[in-house]
Amino acid sequence: MTATLMLELRDLGKSFELHQQHGAHLNVLRGVNLSLHAGECVVLSGPSGAGKSTLLRVIYANYRTSGGAVYVRHDDRWLDLASATPHEVLDVRRRTLGYVSQFLRVIPRVSALDIVAEPLLRDGMDEHEARERAAAMLRRVNIPERLWALPPGTFSGGEQQRVNIARGLIVPRPILLLDEPTASLDAGNRAVVAELLAEARAAGSAVLGIFHDEAMRDQVATRLFTMQALEAA
Ligand SMILES: Nc1ncnc2c1ncn2[C@@H]1O[C@H](COP(=O)(O)OP(=O)(O)OP(=O)(O)O)[C@@H](O)[C@H]1O
């Protein structure tokens, strides 16, 4: 059986206008074509500056495309995020497209437990069950129980990153974009994340990620997508 196609990039381009350099253009992506299927984990590789993070941000519609299309399967129909309305983009982000970066967006006075439970509550789960599930997830990523009730602003880099992963993977969205989510983690915690990703894939998620650590990349990638840096226009 062929796996379901979840994301398709067609002839995608992105250039930045550099306002401080008299409007010069920096071409970062040109003619990118990529298909991503349910259950696979494609890892972006290529030198620093090749545009890997930019590609994820374009897919997540943080950056506008300069050309081409970003088709996502949303509710079993295709939507081009490059031309979608802001309302459609938000709906896709809420239900179909997850994005986990290496940085946790800390919300003052909100505890680690509530940060992790929030996606479940937003999906309509009752509070008790959401908190139980969040606690199990925090335990899984080795956050000590004494920290659960605290806002993560003062947590270490690795602890914040694990809270972020717990939040990002507690409801594995059909498409997951990961920008170095394991950058500050030790080998033991990276192995936990690899396990969580394998479970997300087994449940049908399509994963597209950046992992600079080679061992991690070898562990999680089902395929590499290699990118090259372009010249400035
Ligand atoms: N908002 C922006 N404005 C201008 N230039 C940008 C912007 N974002 C990224 N760039 C440029 O785009 C190029 C690609 O950056 P990007 O972060 O996507 O590369 P990368 O492959 O992820 O690199 P690394 O492996 O070092 O993280 C860089 O030259 C960067 O300076």
TrEMBL record:
Organism listed in the record = Dyella acidisoli
The record's annotation in SMART domains points to:
AAA
PANTHER family in the record, alphabetically? ALPHA-D-RIBOSE 1-METHYLPHOSPHONATE 5-TRIPHOSPHATE SYNTHASE SUBUNIT PHNL, LIPOPROTEIN-RELEASING SYSTEM ATP-BINDING PROTEIN LOLD
Keyword Nucleotide-binding in record: yes
Q: Which residues form the ABC transporter domain?
A: 7-232
Q: Which domain of life is it from?
A: Bacteria
Query: Which GO molecular function annotations are given, in alphabetical order?
Result: lyase activity
Q: What keywords appear on the UniProt entry?
A: ATP-binding, Lyase, Nucleotide-binding
Q: Which InterPro entries match?
A: AAA+_ATPase, ABC_transporter-like_ATP-bd, ABC_transporter-like_CS, CP_lyase_PhnL, P-loop_NTPase
Instruction: Give the family this protein belongs to, as stated in its UniProt record.
Output: Belongs to the ABC transporter superfamily.
The name of this protein is Phosphonate C-P lyase system protein PhnL
